[in-house]
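Demo today. Your pick:
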Amino acid sequence: MSNNTRELRYTLVSEGSSDIALMPILKWLLQENGVRQAIQGEWADLGEAQVIERISLTVKIREAVRLYPCDLLFVHRDADRATREGRLEEIDIAISKIIDFTLPAICVIPVRMQETWLLFDEKAIRFAAGNRNGRIPLNLPLLAQLESLPDPKKELHDCLKRASGLNKRRLKSFHTSQRARRVSEFCDDFSPLRNLQAFKALEHDIRQIIGRYKWKN
């Protein structure tokens, strides 16, 4: 816990700026599992290190902790075509290479990618699209189908375009990626995602850390 005992600070290391959408989810999970202190989250903006593949995950994590001091570190990696276990091992190995690393760290590994966790709330998608009163059917996938979608990012972007109600000409200036980043901001309740194995695993790990460090209440 930071010097201010009423504040829990966390830092998110992720694959790119679109993953800022995970932050409302992480805050919700911390609060749902008993954290009552103010929560201050930071996305680790590492500039070129964030996008250049040759920069190792170890370097990204080390720099994130240096630039964004925190009490808790979240490390995000999409599962993509890898297994959750494979991504966990990859993150654990990266952290083990950092000398004197003592922070609690939690792996955030959606299946297949973080957009999977943004495809369940029609209201939030319509708000993010800037057309909250739209009536065009969005045809969202069923919750049970989310983790088997081949391309959740494309699915979300298509839903946002439909929700906008814009014609082809006006869609050319519709910033879909920016809109996608905002979907989670308009969601008040992420509990439906508890039906997904990857989300349940994340919540379990968060609950364990909260208990271990006595951050509850």
